[in-house]
Design goal:
The chain has ten helices and seven strands. With 233 residues, the chain is α+β, with helices and mostly antiparallel strands.
């Protein structure tokens, strides 16, 4: 598995680069120093991202989407769930709005909603990809839709079903074998398509989903925009 930088690890984990270095120094993440720079195993970082976090254990993919449905006004999509599961989703949505909960737990408890794949796409295909009906525009590509204080150009971010991901990669000649600096497409691939079906009824992701995407990003301004958006849900 490839080595990644501290900045890339921070983006995957949704924390600051300083926090990643503290985890390395405390032995909670494994890494090695090369010419004074830390390098980490991408496999180890991904495993930590899926496991318990300082802000709380992540929900399962289905539970994350059920809670997001409540936060997004799509509670009608939970109609087929047993009553206890609907009640849990409502309870979690209420709890995350409590003072301090968003700061301490958002977006860590939502980390399992999808897995991110980063690509380079030729600039000419980006507008077409973003308009593709199989892509739900989100993250930096939907920040302006929800009046987040963030403007990012030349990038695409969105959600796709796992059953569509490979076809999109081929059709748009997306290249995953690129340096971090070259990445201009981020696709959140949803494996639990049934739990997230309500999301794919929209061309643009609702504010709660966009907030989770932005808050996971390493750039301080992106992260702050996501946290502010979450606080105003």
């Amino acid at each position: 598995m490839d080595d990644i930088s501290v900045a890339e690890a921070a983006e995957i984990l949704g924390v600051s680069a300083r926090r990643v270095r503290a985890l390395l120094e405390g032995g909670q993440l494994r890494g090695r120093q090369v010419c004074g720079r830390w390098l980490l195993s991408s496999r180890d970082v991904e495993q930590r991202q899926r496991g318990p976090h300082d802000g709380g254990r992540p929900l399962s993919s289905a539970s994350a989407w059920h809670m997001l449905a409540v936060l997004s006004g799509a509670e009608g999509s939970l109609g087929e769930l047993p009553a206890p599961a609907r009640s849990r989703a409502r309870r979690r949505a209420r709890a995350i709005r409590e003072p301090g909960e968003i700061r301490d737990k958002w977006p860590h408890i939502l980390a399992n909603r999808a897995h991110r794949i980063k690509f380079y796409g030729h600039p000419s295909v980006l507008p077409v990809l973003l308009a593709d009906s199989r892509v739900v525009r989100s993250g930096v590509s939907a920040a302006a839709d929800h009046n987040a204080d963030l403007v990012v150009v030349g990038q695409v971010e969105g959600y796709v079903r796992s059953s569509d991901a490979q076809d999109l990669k081929v059709e748009y000649a997306l290249n995953a074998d690129v340096d971090h600096a070259q990445v201009n497409v981020v696709l959140h691939v949803v494996d639990d398509e049934r739990a997230a079906q309500w999301l794919f009824n929209n061309p643009v992701a609702p504010a709660a989903v966009v907030a989770a995407d932005l808050a996971e990003r390493a750039a301080p301004r992106d992260h702050a925009a996501g946290m502010n958006l979450a606080a105003n849900l």
